[in-house]
Structure formats: C-alpha cells, structure tokens
Amino acid sequence: MSGLFSESAWMMVWNYRDTFILGFINTLETSIAAIILSLTLGIVIGLMAMSTSKVLRTINRVYVEFIQNTPLLLQICVLYYALAFSGYKLGILITGIISLGVYHGAYMAEVFRAGIGAISKGQFEAADSQGFSYIGKMYYIILPQSIKIILPPSVNQIVNLIKNTAVLYIIGGSDLISLTYNFVTGATTGGAYAPAYLVCGALFFLICFPLSTLASIWESNLKKKDGMGAAKEKKVAEI
C-alpha cells in the first residue's frame, strides 16, 4: 500500500486528514512562538555586539559561539531529558519553543550585528551629534536603514526554524513530522509512506514558500525606494 500511485494509500491519508491538519497547526504555533523568541534574542544579543561595554560584547560572543557550535538536537535533548532527570521536566511544546528560539536567536544575533555594522559610521556620529540616546539612535536611525540588509537572511532563518521543528520528533512531539511518522507506522494506518510524506512536504512548502516570496517582494520594494531616493538627491544636487 506504500506506492505513490496506490489509491488505497491516498484514501488512507484522506481519511486521517485531521492528523495532518493537527500537525500543521502545531508546527505553525510552535514556529510562531519560537520566531518571536529568536527575533527578541537576536535584537538584544545583536545590539550587545555593537555596545561599548566589554561585558556585553563578551556575553554576545559566548552565546553565539556556544549555540552555533553545538547541534540543535543535542540542545533539545539536554533541555528535555537532562532537566527531566534533574527533576525539572518541561513540556514538549515549551521545550521546542525554547530550544528553537534560542538556537536560531544566535543566528539572528549575527544577522542583526552584520546589518547594523554595515551602516556607515557617519550615521552613528550624526545621531550622536543630534543628542539621540543609544536606544533612540538604533530605533530611529540605524535599524530602519539596516532592514534591507537584515531582511533576506532573517527570512532564511525563519524558514530554517520552521523546517527544524522536525527535530522535535526525537522527544515525541506533536509536530507535523512526528504525527506523520506516527501515522505511517501506526497499527491501523501504517503503510501509506509515499502519500503521507508527500502531503507532509507539501504542508511545509505551504508555510515556507509564501514567506520567501513575500520577503523577496519586500526587499525589491525597499531597494526601489532607495534607488528613487538616491535619484532624487542626485537631481537636487545637479540643480
């Protein structure tokens, strides 16, 4: 019954469509919460890298280097199993949100650091001369200019985060991959491998592709606005 063109396999998937819908919803909810956490950490830790404080810069490097150089799967196992044996068991959903958020937060921090670092020093000096505080300088001057630099890699990290929800399978999650695996190995539903995994892949595509497309459109619009602004400035200068 595992063949891609098996009618009975496709009927089995259709009859248990609620399983795939549930997995899709759980993956989406986990992803949204983890994205919020990763963006928050990315902004905070990324700004630390640009701070004049050596302590804050050290915190940034320790966090980024440690998280980026250890596997996400290991971090999940430590957070879930190691804490459980220590008497501090976290739920699967919370474990997924924290582990995915913290892991991708390290990459987001580097994205924000690079985006801010790409802005010319003259912009920082101009903001300082106008009396902006550090937060005001970043919020009103630096971050708006760095969006077009930060956007593409940020979206890539968001898409990777969504796909990485698959690793929650190792702790028995209820995400899309986990429920698909349970479906194809179930006593009453097992066997429809090709259709089940094809549907699973299509649902992931349904989440990720629109994000990538919207980001590309947004990036193009920002570049067009920058180009129009530069053209106007040049025209004014010529006059």
UniProtKB/TrEMBL annotation:
Keywords on record: Amino-acid transport, Cell membrane, Membrane, Transmembrane, Transmembrane helix, Transport
GO cellular component, one term: ATP-binding cassette (ABC) transporter complex
Domain ABC transmembrane type-1: residue ranges: 24-215
UniProt GO MF annotations: transmembrane transporter activity
UniProt-listed GO biological process terms: amino acid transport
Subcellular localization(s) per the UniProt record: Cell membrane
Chief location bin: membrane
Signal sequence bounds: none
Membrane-topology descriptor: Multi-pass membrane protein
Segments passing through the bilayer: 20-50, 62-84, 90-109, 166-184, 196-218
Top-level lineage group: Bacteria
Classification via PANTHER family: GLUTAMINE TRANSPORT SYSTEM PERMEASE PROTEIN GLNP (PTHR30614:SF20), MEMBRANE COMPONENT OF AMINO ACID ABC TRANSPORTER (PTHR30614)
NCBIfam families noted in UniProt: HEQRo_perm_3TM
Family indicated by similarity: Belongs to the binding-protein-dependent transport system permease family. HisMQ subfamily.
Protein name, per record: Polar amino acid ABC transporter permease
